[in-house]
Design brief:
With about 200 residues, the chain is of the alpha/beta class. Bound molecules: glutamine. In the presence of PdxS, forms a dodecamer of heterodimers. Only shows activity in the heterodimer.
Length: about 200
């Protein structure tokens, strides 16, 4: 049995819980720092990254999240979650700085320009459903970062070792394949650890 947490500071928490359901997998809603010790992988939902960062500081999550990331346990960040993970954010200071990527916020227009599309995501499927809401794009990727998907030539999903990230919201669709890909990453990382 593995345990995957969903950081419940803000955003679409319940939708992630639904998409992560899998065999031998327990989903834990993370509201307290101590809970990080019991999980094997973690999801950062979308929402608003500035607000999420403020709550992360307020509840003492900043350092613990950085150490969780560096421990080798997988993290999956969607949309605002991607922004939290980036080492660089155009025009402002970064947050957790875990992934070697530079992001640009709100790169696909405003709320009313939200859209749904189908994307090819390497290693997952050719037709992953994706909802973009004031989404960021990945402007630059550094060493060890694998580009998993592009939309109109812009990078919208990437992986760096145990870190998986995307600009869009797979949890707002009935397509669970990207989440299930992450569940597999967590199971594999867990097997490596107990070997
Ligand atoms: N635009 C938001 C931000 O910058 C992210 C939007 C989202 O998560 N849907 O934090």
């Amino acid at each position: 049995m593995i345990k995957i947490g969903v950081l419940a500071m803000q955003g679409a928490v319940r939708e992630h819980v639904r998409s992560l359901q899998a065999e031998d997998t327990e989903i834990v809603i993370i509201k307290k720092v101590e809970q990080l010790q019991e999980i094997d992988g973690l999801v950062f939902p979308g929402g608003e990254s500035t607000t999420m960062r403020r709550l992360i500081n307020q509840y003492g999550f900043f350092e613990p999240l950085q150490s969780f990331g560096r421990s080798g346990k997988p993290i999956f960040g969607t949309c605002a979650g991607l922004i939290l993970m980036a080492r660089e954010i155009a025009g402002q200071d970064s947050h957790l700085g875990l992934m070697n990527i530079k992001v640009q916020r709100n790169a696909f227009g405003r709320q009313r320009e939200s859209f749904e599309t189908t994307l090819e995501v390497q290693g997952v499927a050719e037709d992953v459903r994706a909802v973009f809401i004031r989404a960021p794009l990945i402007e630059e990727v550094g060493e060890q970062v694998e580009v998993l998907s592009t939309y109109n030539g812009e990078i919208v999903a990437a992986r760096q070792g145990q870190y998986l990230t995307c600009s869009f919201h797979p949890e707002l669709t009935d397509d669970f394949r990207l989440h299930q890909f992450f569940v597999t990453m967590v199971k594999e990382a867990n097997e490596q650890r107990i070997k």
